[in-house]
Each structure stands twice: as structure tokens, then as C-alpha cells.
Write a structure and sequence with these properties.
Rossmann fold, OB fold (Dihydrolipoamide Acetyltransferase, E2P), 242 residues, 2 domains, 31% helix, 5-stranded parallel beta sheet, alpha/beta
Length: 242
Amino acid sequence: MKLRCIAIDDEPFALNILADDLKRIPYLELVKTSTNPLEVLESLKKETIDLLFLDIQMPSLTGIQLMKSMSNPPMIILTTAFEQYAVQSYELNVVDYLLKPIAFDRLLKATNKANELLNLRSKAQKIPVETLQEPNYCFVYSEYKEIKLFFEDILYVEGLKDYVKIYSSKTPSNKPILTRLNLKAMEVKLAGKQFCRIHNSFIVNLDKITSFQKTNVHLGTKEIPIGNRFIEAFEEKYRGIK
């Protein structure tokens, strides 16, 4: 299955170079090139596109603004001559961030990543419904990667406005995985008996709790507070699985 893609850049010369390189990659199907981001929005409504190569600095609508205007965007690889957008692109969960002039080997690395993601999603969709079991993992985007997190490895999750920190027993030195989600969205990913929200800012893996008091729980030496409105639900759920 080929990746159907669109390339957008307001500079025709840069767009032509990119298009020529994309046509050299056998698993890509370049459906359209455009210097007009608004035109591309219309194309996305009419046909299935897997991947956008998106310039950031454009006069009518920036690439960042275009991304934010899409309710269900395809995978995106940003292309730009400016380094200062790297942090913002990380927050938007793009597949990759390419600096112009784009070397072909660097472009190929980015498209390989997108192709692997598409194949992974395609395989998941082909699994017969009757063979599906309740998953024991979830996926999050962090540092331009889609990370597979097994529930049994997650210790707890800390919410920080539009981000969450995920603490896992598999990460070195307890360094958290940072991803752009709010705690409510993370709670949906972790739905089930194993996890419980115990505070406005914390979700814990109940299997990792070593002891608890009325106002806090302990995961080994780590102490996490219990919010007043969460106490009753937490105790019922915790005692129910023990």
C-alpha cells in the first residue's frame, strides 16, 4: 500500500525539488503539489491523504495555522528554513521536522518513519474483531516518535495543563515521558481496573501502590497526594481489586 501524500510550499522552486525527490521513493504516491494551503484544505475534504509535507512560512496561512485548523489531520512532516519552530512542532506531534535545503537521505529517513506508522495502523485495522483482546498497552507521541507503553510498566501519570508526564519502570533514572495530552485524555487511554485518578494532577497504577493513607499513596518511596473528591472512589476501586 502506497502512502498518498501532498506537498505544500509557497516557493515553486523548492516545491519542484521536493516533488522530484518524493517521486523517487517507491512507497509514496504524490497526489498533489500546491503553493496554496487553502486549496489543500479543500483537497483533504474530497480524498484520503496519508501524509502532508508542509512548509511553515507561507504568507496566506502558516503551516502551523493550517495544522491547527484541521480536525482530523493526516500525518505531517514539516519543511522549513527556520530552526526556531522545532519546539512548537514537537508539541504538535508531527512525524518529523526537516530543515531546508533537505538532503535526500534525510527526507528518506522521515518518509520511512511515516511509512512504518501507516503499516502499523493498517495491520491493527485488519485484525478480526473476534480475535481482539483488551489491549495491555497504549501509544503516545513523544520526541517525534510514537511510543508503545505497556500498562504494567506505567507507575503513575502527572498532569501539567496541556501536557502529561508518564513515569515508567522502563525509562532510565525515572525520567518521565513527556507528551502533549491533558490528563483527561490520558485517563481515557488508561481506562480499566488497573488505573485510577486520585488527584486533579495524578493518575496511578493501582498495582504499583505499596501503601496508602487517607491523604496520600506510596509507590515505593514516591508519595502522591489524594484529592478530597477522589478519596471515596479510589478506596472502593483499590480495595475491590486487592
